[in-house]
Amino acid sequence: MTTTFSDAEFTYISDMVRTRSAIVLEPGKEYLVEARLAPLVRELGLESIGALVTKLRQGNGGLAEKVTEAMTTNETSFFRDVAPFQALRTLVLPSLVETRKVQRSLRIWCAASSSGQEPYSIAMTIEDDFPQLRGWNLQIVATDLSPAMVERGRSGVYKALEVNRGLPAPMLIKYFTKVGVDYELKAEIRSMVDFSELNLIGAWPAFPPFDIVFLRNVLIYFDVETKRTIFGRVKRLLAPDGFLFLGAAETTMNIDDGFERLPIERAGCYRRTH
Ligand SMILES: C[S@@+](CC[C@H](N)C(=O)[O-])C[C@H]1O[C@@H](n2cnc3c(N)ncnc32)[C@H](O)[C@@H]1O
User: How far away, in angstroms, is 132 Cα from ligand 1 center?
Assistant: First the structure.
């Protein structure tokens, strides 16, 4: 694939994206930059990505954010990878229901929630299988770098293709309403999830501790030092008996020995060691 930018322009974009999001774009990813930025170049009526870089160098307000957002990978699905959600249903939630039965409070953070399928999968699991949590102070916080993804998540509206990926048919029937060609999550599930923008390498609000953190399929884009920093920050926010879920290709091993992996196949579920 031919690209419409020089090596120096590629370096400019990759440095900028890394500073703003921690996403690492190594040489060889030129094709990805070309594919992801082409729609933005068209939308702005520019001739090439080279012209986009010229605009960025001039300090065009808001453009750097748009470019960074365009370089995020937002791939997700309902009940992605299955095993983490089985672990959530059969082990993690039963354990927390027991240990939190006096304070009746449960806090869950989905820290790179993309278009919302992940936090809503958690919400539907709770609604379906943990009626005893009704009346508890239950909070599901969903955050993402991308304002567009946060907005999509908040809307709770999904395409047929999206609800056909991973969502069990009974849940589609029970929790969605067909609106035109799309499917809208019912308010009872939407209201369980609180969406907001958050950059994992920026300042975090003063969150109270979480009992469960989903941090899946985002650290994979970062360098080791950034992963280590984020694990450290997550550890300080995770209750000592809380649970951390990582993506299938992610691990704390050799990065932070403050976590140990539970022996549940393919669940990517970790607990604090200290
Ligand atoms: C591949 S999706 C993962 C979605 C979901 N967790 C899953 O596993 O299906 C990665 C998400 O991370 C977000 N992201 C990338 N860099 C980020 C950062 N620095 N802070 C917060 N979110 C970020 C992207 O916007 C994207 O929505």
Answer: 31
